[in-house]
Amino acid sequence: MKKKLFGTSGIRGHFPEDVNGILAINIGKAIGTYLGGKGDVVVGYDPRTSNKVLDNGISSGLIETGCNVIKLGMVPTGLTGFATEMLNCSCGIMITASHNPSTDNGVKIWNKNGMAFTSSQEDEIEEIYNSNSFITPSWNNVGKIYHNNEIIKDYIDKLLSLVKIKKGLKVLIDSASGAGSELSPIIFRMAGCEVITLNSQVDGFFPGRKAEPNKNNLGDLMQLVPILNADLGIAHDGDADRMITVDENGEISDFDKLLGLISKEMVIKTGDTIVTTVDAGLAIDEAVGSRGKIFRSEVGDVHVAELMEKENASFGGEPSGTWIHPEFSMCPDGILSGLKIAEIVSKKGKLSQLLNEIPSYPNERVKLPCSKEEKVLIMDEVKKSIKNEFNDIIEVSTIDGLRLTFKDGSWVLIRPSGTEDYFRITLEGKTQERADFIQKTSENFINNLIH
C-alpha cells in the first residue's frame, strides 16, 4: 500500500486542504482502534494557529474509541516523548509540522518508550484510517480527558541532570516563536547560563523568522551573537526537536561538523556506536575516527532510532540538528541538544575553534520544487539513468533515495523529500571544483525531468 498520509516524519500538510479537523478526528479514531480502545494517550502541540483544531479533533477521536487523553498543551516535542514514557502511556501524539511554514500542520505519534512510530506501525494506522474500521464502544465506555502540567517539572529536572555547564556562559537563544520559546530560555538559565532571548514570544505565525533554522532564516541571530558578545547562539525550529548553533563570531555552524563534534564527545563519554543518516557527510567519520563505529540509516529520526536500538548506540542524529540522546529518551530533543553543546563550549573553549579541528569538505544541500505526483516517477528515472552521467562511481546505496560514492570519496544523495514538495540533492566533494560538477550534473538531470 502506497502511503498517502505519512511521510518521513509523521503526517504533514497544508491546513485545511490536507490536514484539518475531519482528518484529526479520524486519525484519533484510527490510533485508538490500533490501541484496542484502551490506555492513556498524551497529546501536545506547537503554537501553530490550527493547533486547537487538531488537538480537539484527535482527542475526540481517541475518547470515542475508549482511550483516555492526557493533554499537555503547548509543549516542545521532546516533552511529549518524555511524558509518554514517564506517564506509562500507550502512546503519545505531537501536533506539529516542525520546521514547515506556519500554514502547515501535522501529527507525529510516539511509542510508550518515547520512540516515534515505525513505518510498519504507520502502515497499520493508515490501513485502519482508510478502511474506516474504527472501534465504537457503548455510551458508558468512552474515554476521559485529563490535563497534566506537573510533568514539565520532571522534564526540566531530567534535562538538568544530564549536563554540567560552567556558570556564566552567555547564550543567545532564538526559538522562532515556537514551542521552545518559554521552556528553552528558562532551562538554560537554570543550567547556569546567562541567557538573552530572540523570537521567544509564542506566536504560531512565526513573525520573527521562518521556523526552519538555516542560514537564510538566522540573519538576526548571526548578527547579534558577536554584537552582544555572546559565547554561543542556539536556534530551534517550530517544535524545538531540532537545534542549530551560531558560533561566537556570528557564523552558523556547519551542520555536518556540528554533528561530528557532538558524536566525538558522545563516543568519548558514553559508548562507541553512533547512528546517523545517509545524508550525513564525511565530517562525522573524520571526527569519530577509530574511536567508534558509525552506522547510517534512512533519513528521519524514527529510522535513526530504530537502528540505534538495533546497534545499542550511545547517540544518534541527523545533520539537520535532530539528535537523539538515549539516556534521556528515544525522542529527539533540541533543548537537550543545545545544552550538550553549551556544556562542551563551557568546558573546552570557543565553538569556532572546536569545529575548525574537524576536517570538512565543500558540500551543498539543494531543494528543487517538485509535486507529490511527480516524485515517484522522477525517482524511478533517477535510479535508472543518472549513473550514466558519471564515470567514476564505486558504490551505489538505495537505503534512502540514491546515494552515489565516487573514487575520490566525494558523494551525492538524491531523494524526494518526505515532508515537503521538493527533491533534495545533498552532496560533498573533495574539492570545490568537484562539488560544483556533481551539483550541476545532478541538478540539470532532475530539472530536465520536472515538468
UniProtKB/TrEMBL annotation:
From the broadest rank down, the organism's phylogenetic lineage runs: Archaea, Methanobacteriati, Methanobacteriota, Methanomada group, Methanobacteria
Q: Which SUPFAM superfamilies does the entry mention? A: Phosphoglucomutase, C-terminal domain, Phosphoglucomutase, first 3 domains
| One Gene Ontology molecular-function label | phosphoglucosamine mutase activity
Coding gene?
A: glmM_1
Q: Supply the Pfam families for this chain.
A: PGM_PMM_I, PGM_PMM_II, PGM_PMM_III, PGM_PMM_IV
Q: Which PANTHER family does the entry link to?
A: PHOSPHOMANNOMUTASE (PTHR43771)
Domain Alpha-D-phosphohexomutase alpha/beta/alpha intervals: 4-134, 153-250, 256-358
Q: Which CDD domains match?
A: PGM_like1
Is Coiled coil a UniProt keyword of this protein? Answer: no
GO annotation terms (biological process)? carbohydrate metabolic process
Q: Which family does it belong to?
A: Belongs to the phosphohexose mutase family.
Q: Which residues belong to any copy of the Alpha-D-phosphohexomutase C-terminal domain?
A: 367-437
Protein name, as recorded: Phosphoglucosamine mutase
Q: What range does the record give for the signal peptide?
A: none
